Here is the input.
Amino acid sequence: MPILERVTVTLSSDLIRDIDRQEKNRSKFVSDAIVHELDRRRRTQLHVSLENPHPESAELAERGLDDWAAGLPDEDAEALLSTEAGQAVGWIPGRGWVELPD
Here is the structure.
């Protein structure tokens, strides 16, 4: 069971009234709302990251997975990935990651 901590949050009486109309347990409602908002922000950050990859990621994408795997020790490459699995993708500036034709 997670460790619980008490936090004091100040909300308007209108907002409290709206919460109470939806949920009797205010703590649960606020906790659910925070989890939802954190998930939304993580997704937004992921989208930003995918649209603006780190320069090293763009370089790796240009080189391709096979070149990257060729630089690994033989015993590591086989354990880490299968170049036949998954969908081929490529980075297109201004568009982001796109699926490549087979």
